[in-house]
Amino acid sequence: MKLKLFLLDNPIWNALSSVHQEFAVGTPGVKCYQEQTIPFMGIQYNDKNLLTELEAYLKEGEERFLKDELESVPENWEILQRLACIQMVYNPSPVESAINPISQLSEQDSDELHALVNLVQPGFFKRKTTLLGNYYGIRKEGILVAVAGERMKLDGFTELSAVCTHPSHTGNGYAQQLLRGLCQITIEKGNIPFLHVLESNKRAIQIYEFLNFTKRIDFPLVKLKYTGKN
Prior knowledge:
It comes from Pedobacter antarcticus. By secondary structure, the chain is of the alpha+beta class. It has two domains: about 5-85 and about 220-225, Aminopeptidase, CATH 3.40.630.30; about 85-220, Aminopeptidase (3-Layer(aba) Sandwich), CATH 3.40.630. The chain has five helices and 13 strands. It is globular.
C-alpha cells in the first residue's frame, strides 16, 4: 500500500473528513472536534474567512488550536498563543515486545487517566478525548503511573498522544514501553503511527528518535479564541 503522506500536511482537517468525521462539527470548509473531545480545528485551505463559517457552532470565549499558517485572523478571533511543534512519523521496523505489560484502559480508569494527563500536559485532554481511540497504561502498586493513547485518526495513519509519566516515576522507561506497544498495535491494524511534539521538548524528541520516529515537517500551532460577534 502506497502511503499518502500528504494527508499529514493537514491532519486535523483530514481526520475530521474521514475516520473521525463522526466527531466533526462545522462546514465543508472548516471543521472542529466536538466540545470536550480535543480542542482542535482544521481548515481545508489557508483562508482566514473560513473561520467565520465556524462561528455558528461555537460559544463566545471558546478556544481552539489550528495549524498556524494564516497571515491574520478575522476580527472576531483573538490569537492567544503560538506553539512551535514538529510532526514525527514512525518508520516501521521489527518492534520489541514491551517489557512491562501495557493494559488497555477502560471507563473505570477515566478519572485517573484524566488526572494524570492534565497533571503532565494540561489543557489538551478533555472528558471525551478517550472516545477518539484506545488508551493504555502501566500501573505500579495499583496506581496509574504512565499512559499513552490514540488521538487523531485518518486514512492509513494514527496519531499517538498523551504520552505521560507521573513526575515521581520518570526515568524508568515507561514511555518507551508504552510507545513500543502502541506502535506494534497500530502497525498490526495496517496504520502508520505519527505524533506531534513541542520543538523545545528535546528529551521527548530523543526518545521518539530512539524508537524510530523521524521528523517530517515543522507543525506550528496557534491557539485562537472566538470572542463573539460584534
